[in-house]
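Sanity check. The docking grid for FE2/S2 (inorganic) cluster depends on where the pocket ends up, so I'm generating a full predicted complex first rather than guessing from homology. Inputs follow.
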Amino acid sequence: MNPIKNAWYVAALAKNVSTTPIKQKLLDCPIVLYRTESGEAVALDDRCPHRFAPLHKGKVVGDSIECPYHGLQFSPDGVCSRNPHGDCKIPAAAKVRRYPLREQDGLIWLWCGEVDVVGSPLSLGEFFDADHRTLISGYYKLNAHIEIVLDNLMDLSHAPFLHPTTLADASNTESLIFEMKQEGDAVIAYHWIPNARVSPQFRPFWPSDVADNRANITWTPPANLQLDVGVTEVGGRPGDGVDLHFAHLLSPAGANETHYFWIAARNYEIGNEEVSRIMEGQVEQAFETEDEPMIEAVAGYMSTPDLLALKPVLLPGDAAAIRVRRMLQLLREKE
Ligand code: FES
Ligand SMILES: [Fe+2]
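Predicted complex below; grid placement will be based on this.
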């Protein structure tokens, strides 16, 4: 159950990468992320090839990063650019692995694969529609295999039970309509609750108690999820009401550790900072006190991250998560 290796993964929110280096772990590789003084984001192996000091504890000098131990400097291509010792010659072996990096849509994507770069990171510009929506973002780290986190996000039937006061109305369980479909490489799980109590998260922004609620989530490999969640007038068209375009982007820190980056783009209360802070609090509550403890408890009780090997009881809402797992298994076999 190794995570897929040959893929683009999010390593950081772009706003968190600066000229102060930070450490990140992806696929068990320690990586230093920094921004050159001219603003370019860089990802290198965090281990200095001299005595294996952590480069993220060093400093940025121009475009290079300087090792905090003996001062070797490495340029963005990973090659040593300065040796302050002896005759100052650069030893041929003085280089570190450079990770291909793309910065787009407020995200830093890395390729840590064992083969040359294939394709491009998922483009999210249209989904976020930043000219017409207000974006907030955040990050959590989970002690669970990436596929156990995907199981949680692809199955929103848990919402009325795990999130009865934050994300879903507990009285709406029986009217949930679920449908799943696959389009090429994508798996889409549709959840509709028509003519029902408005989800708690939208109540302050919706004029009546009743609406058509929807939460449709699209997975694309290996672990990118785009959730369209919102409410409309009963019988109205999706898009006419209030909604969030919510990206959940997972990456494997290691076999049983998962990075979870999120960006939510709303089409209401545009530019209202106070609403942004309230929403960040809602996400924090739903995630830190509801999803995260449940995901980690589930991971603790599963003797293997291979869900199907454990022969679980399956419910209708599991169809999408199971399809995703099957597709990941095919990708793994290809690798
Ligand atoms: S460990 Fe980096 S220069 Fe010595
Ligand atoms: Fe949840």
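Relevant for the grid: The helical segments are 125-128, 146-154, 159-162, 273-301, 319-334.
Also worth noting: Residues 15 and 193 are 36 Å apart (CA to CA).
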